Known about the structure:
It contains three helices and no strands. By secondary structure, it is mainly alpha-helical. The protein has a domain at 30-98.
Amino acid sequence: MRYWDGAVWTEHFQVPPPPPVMVPAQVTNMPAAFALAAGIVGFVVTGIPLVGVFIGGPIDIVAIICGIWGLNRTITVGRTGTAPAIIGIVLAGISLLSIPFGAGTIW
């Protein structure tokens, strides 16, 4: 594309801008993220009297399963998410281990 320099049309052509650089989207380790969310929810819900054992317990079990799944994905596929998976497993484990000591029951 020629352009006007103020006196005449030039023979120089304007260089087109380079195409935009496509950055690949970072893949999220969804089982690890779900383990973290379920671990937090299970940790909070397990302490509620009467209802906590029946709702928080299964949520904690799901958090532990998803946390182990998320850890396996970080090892085999090489994705991020080690910390959320471990935190979810720890929170769910603490709340599951607190059930025999009276968590979720009337004190």
